[in-house]
Amino acid sequence: MEEFHKVRRLPPYVFEQVNRLKATARAAGADIIDLGMGNPDLPTPQSIVDKLCEVVRDPRTHRYSTSKGIPGLRRAQAHYYARRFGVKLNPDTEVVATLGSKEGFANMAQAITAPGDVVLCPNPTYPIHAFGFLMAGGVIRSISVEPDERFFAPLERAVKHSIPKPIALILNYPSNPTAHVATLDFYKDVIAFARKHDIIVLSDLAYSEIYFGDEQPPSVLQVDGAKDIAVEFTSMSKTFSMPGWRIGFAVGNERLIAALARVKSYLDYGAFTPIQVAATQALNGDGSDIEEVRSIYHKRRDVLIESFGKAGWDITPPEATMFAWAKVPEAYQSMGSLEFSKLLVEKADIAVAPGIGFGEQGDDYVRIALVENEHRIRQAGRNLKRFLASAEHGPDNIVSLNAHR
Ligand SMILES: Cc1ncc(COP(=O)(O)O)c(C=O)c1O
């Protein structure tokens, strides 16, 4: 039987191949250090968990909630934007709470895409950016991910030569997987370009709070006039270590927000009310929870760069996100990122995400997530050192760490 039309547009996740090897190795007794998926390992701060437990005791919170989010939560998100970015938002018309930013992004794609519409999408990028639009019947044209002067020439070509003209442009800075950070000047140029060509801008700002330098990642909505064409998505998942809670936001242009809210009103009844109340408390907090999460990732980043560097793999330190985007070492470049990732699982007991899973332009890289503690990251460095040293004598000499495998 032929595969369903929609399912044909969703090839199996590349990452599954590494996951399968990981499961097999673990079943054979290996201690795999898992730096593959971007699944935060830190517990949600206790005060947020306590709030959830308190609110869930009230049976009135057990009913259907509101699809676009309870008013207090939307107000808290508007306050966050005012505090952090100096951006004023109307919580009634310019803010929608989503079931994680991924759901918000995918349903925005459903809301705005007609069959065959062209969308400009960075490559490599977080898969939903492309697949959200592919599922919605759109067509993807890849653009550069580097947020500098290299961005604009391919973008102009893409707009000039796409038929029909692109409807939307996707931005994601700090970037998953590359960890590139955009400046406000870059956003100003993008917004000017998009306004000129009447193109919608969708900015994924999931890593707004996971940064390590003095400069805070800006919001695209800080640019004058951005609200005429742009929507931005943020997430509680990384900022407050709440990935399983499924809370995120879309904010910005009123017409786009209304379109998303309309689609959602047909699909969901909103997140469970106690989750929304606890999320409201988190957003209204004094920032100390965020500071702690940030400093843990910062320390892990430093340990990763140091211990992998000592093992012989020099990695550019990421300025933001919970990932390092590491060039596959020279000797392994020809095998591609997927085979190299499999080799790391089998021979070094380390799982990473192959760059090819984020798009064809990612194949010279792997993504290393900071989701194990410092001790485990150091252990990964030692495993790597042994692997790279044994491999120096040729691929046939690579020894597994565990003789029983
Ligand atoms: C760039 C980016 N956007 C969105 C998400 C998903 O976030 P959420 O949990 O809010 O759906 C992730 C998670 O890894 C991400 O890396």
UniProtKB/TrEMBL annotation:
Family: Belongs to the class-I pyridoxal-phosphate-dependent aminotransferase family.
Coiled-coil intervals: none
Domain of life: Bacteria
Domain Aminotransferase class I/classII large: 31-370
Stored PANTHER family: AMINO ACID AMINOTRANSFERASE (PTHR42832), GLUTAMATE-PYRUVATE AMINOTRANSFERASE ALAC (PTHR42832:SF1)
EC number: 2.6.1.-
NCBIfam families: PRK09148.1 (NF006604)
Keyword vocabulary terms for this entry: Aminotransferase, Transferase
The protein's required cofactors: pyridoxal 5'-phosphate
UniProt KW Transferase keyword: yes
This protein's name: Aminotransferase
Organismal lineage: Bacteria, Pseudomonadati, Pseudomonadota, Alphaproteobacteria, Hyphomicrobiales
GO MF terms held by the record: pyridoxal phosphate binding; transaminase activity
